[in-house]
Write a structure and sequence with these properties.
Layout: E1 9-12, H1 19-28, E2 46-48, H2 49-61, E3 65-67, E4 72-74, E5 76-79, H3 93-103, E6 106-109, H4 121-127, H5 129-142, E7 145-148, E8 154-159, E9 190-193, H6 197-203, E10 212-219, E11 223-227, H7 243-252, H8 258-270, E12 275-279, H9 283-287, E13 294-295, E14 298-299, H10 304-312, E15 316-321, E16 330-338
Parallel strand pairs: 11-12
Antiparallel strand pairs: 1-2, 3-4, 5-6, 7-11, 8-10, 9-15, 10-16, 12-15, 13-14
Helix pairs in contact: 1-2, 4-5, 4-7, 5-8
The structure holds zinc ion.
Zinc ion binds at residues 11-12, 14-15, 36, 38-39, 41, 44.
Length: 352
């Protein structure tokens, strides 16, 4: 990162005693020679006010993010109006004093707006079996149809198939093995695939010991897919009434959400869709961005200047109903062995 010479350097990575905070500061800090004006260290990464604010946000706000059944919210926030009122580990006391004095901010326990932790009307109606149907119908009506033809290809990974070269190995699993996924249910097989190989690998939870194969698949004709990966713009009302927020939270939730997504799939099948496009659970991990970003308690999904960026956070996955290879709706172009050469984790820290 280049340093603008008129922006003063006010601290450095060596200023901090919390080790995680120090490592985060090394990641974000600037490569600048000279002495830190705060602690006099020479060979450290230097921080401007802007970088220090970014560090405070990453460590305390994103670093205290707490996931709920649906949604997530940070436990800590900071601003220029409040005095620090959070409990601090002993190794963090002097670091917080430094943030307070250099940025004139205080850290406080954050009471989230309730939509952030899943208080979204259409989402609550989806969880309730009596009202679910109504919202599922709205989803079918409000989300766009996408036709995906032979010019597209996507990947499907298998661990230890008994006959790796045989196309049927890459079709939907046999009836004895279905009903455990996000969209498949008893007697309702689904083939999962993605145009993003990294996402496929995450979804299959592969390890370096696995004997892996990847099939490249192409539609034979145009597939009619319900696209749930888009951001619904121009919604009226607040986050509390937002169908977009409900669907976004649904696909970032774990297994407890599957009974809902399975019902969306069977309804889409009844409406003659070949399958759905949906945002991958691993989208955010793949891109390394914070879920449910807000400004003044308003979701970035609802602020027009952020919508493009929010849409880019969503990496689409495909769920195709039935046994599309057997039914000749998809053809297998090629199979390759897949060797996991290196696994790279990216992380940052937060307070206890
Ligand atoms: Zn320093």
């Amino acid at each position: 990162m280049a340093h603008d010479p008129i922006t003063p350097l006010i601290a450095c990575s060596a200023c901090f005693s919390d080790h995680g905070l120090r490592l985060d500061a090394e990641r974000l800090g600037l490569e600048e020679t000279g002495v830190c004006p705060n602690c006099n260290t020479i060979d450290s990464k230097k921080l401007t006010k802007g970088v220090l604010l970014k560090l405070a946000y990453r460590f305390f706000v994103w670093g205290s993010l707490h996931r709920c059944e649906y949604g997530a919210a940070p436990r800590i926030q900071f601003n220029e109006h409040q005095k620090t009122s959070i409990g601090l580990s002993p190794w963090l006391v002097s670091d917080v004093k430094l943030f307070e004095s250099l940025l004139s901010i205080g850290f406080f326990p954050y009471g989230p707006r309730l939509w952030m932790i899943g208080e979204v009307e259409p989402l609550k109606e989806l969880q309730n079996r009596c009202t679910r149907k109504n919202i599922v119908n709205r989803i079918l009506h409000d989300y766009p149809t996408r036709n995906v033809g032979p010019e597209h290809h996507f990947y499907r990974i298998r661990k230890e198939p008994s006959n790796p070269a045989k196309p049927s190995e890459y079709d939907s699993p046999p009836n004895s093995a279905i009903g455990k996924g996000r969209f498949d249910s008893t007697n309702f097989p689904v083939l999962y695939a993605s145009p993003d190989l990294q996402v496929c690998m995450h979804e299959c939870r592969v390890t370096a010991e696995d004997d892996l194969y990847v099939a490249t698949l192409t539609p034979n004709t145009s597939l009619r897919l319900l696209d749930l990966s888009v951001l619904l713009r121009d919604e009226h009302g607040t986050e509390f009434e937002s169908l977009d927020m409900a669907v976004h939270m649904l696909f970032l939730a774990g297994k407890h959400s599957y009974e809902i997504t399975r019902e969306i799939a069977t309804a889409a099948y009844t409406s003659e869709f070949d399958g759905v496009i949906y945002p991958s659970y691993f989208s955010l991990l793949r891109l390394g961005v914070m879920p449910f970003e807000t400004t003044y308690g308003i979701s970035h999904r609802r602020i027009s200047q952020y919508q493009e960026y929010e849409q880019e956070k969503s990496i689409p996955n495909l769920a195709i109903f039935g046994r599309p290879i057997e039914q000749s709706r998809l053809s297998l172009q090629c199979v390759n062995r897949l060797i996991v050469r290196r696994v790279d984790y990216d992380f940052h820290f937060g307070p206890v």
